[in-house]
Amino acid sequence: MSDIAQQIEHLRLAELQFRLASAVRLASTFKTQPRDLPIEWSHGKHSVRYDEIALSEDDADYAARSLHRSATFLMAVAMKDAIRVAVHDPKTDSDADVRSAYQIARLIRNAFAHSPFDPVWSIDLDCRDRVFAVRDLIRLDTTGLHDQRFDWRNYGGPLALLRLSQFVRAEILRDAEPPSPVIPMPRKVYMQQGDLILMKVDEIPADAVPVEIERLPDGGLPLGGGHVLYPAGKSK
Fold it and tell me: Which of 51-60's residues contact partners 24+ apart within 8 Å by CB, and which partners?
């Protein structure tokens, strides 16, 4: 396998892990994620019992959020390595998108690698007070970011990194996307915006608790965190 082909496989795997972690996080939030583990598990000279590794629902939900975050940043690690293999000197490449893709991936990778559970920006002197952007996919303005804690708004969030990974595969490594397998539709319909998750139901559950929410002047229902719910068909 060539170096380029290997990097393509690494990027595809990183994207698959992100997609799986997204599904696990959603299932953990709605308490439908299986948490079965072996009654006894041995590997090499070590063994554990079920009660040593079993997860409570709260543990699973907490770990799922961390797993999703780690899978997101792993894409940045894979992108940085892939670009270095495909491009001789990505920092000075003639293509601005290549330069920006490399610097964004590298800066995110550095912060994650040095502090994976609480990333902090560590911006090189030659990258401070600059804007790195790749088309309309992702934008990182490093002004004032050095030594600041990560915030998804700095770079656009997990889906921006997924799109950047796809860009690196297709445009820099020249990956030919394989045919998509036929995947059945989910049993339940979810809509997600940021960390807000909505699930479609056929009727109001019997244990639903009524809440009083004052409508906005335009008829919307504020849900908190900047999210607003509008009637079907209303353009917002």
Answer: 57/28, 57/31, 60/28, 60/33, 60/35
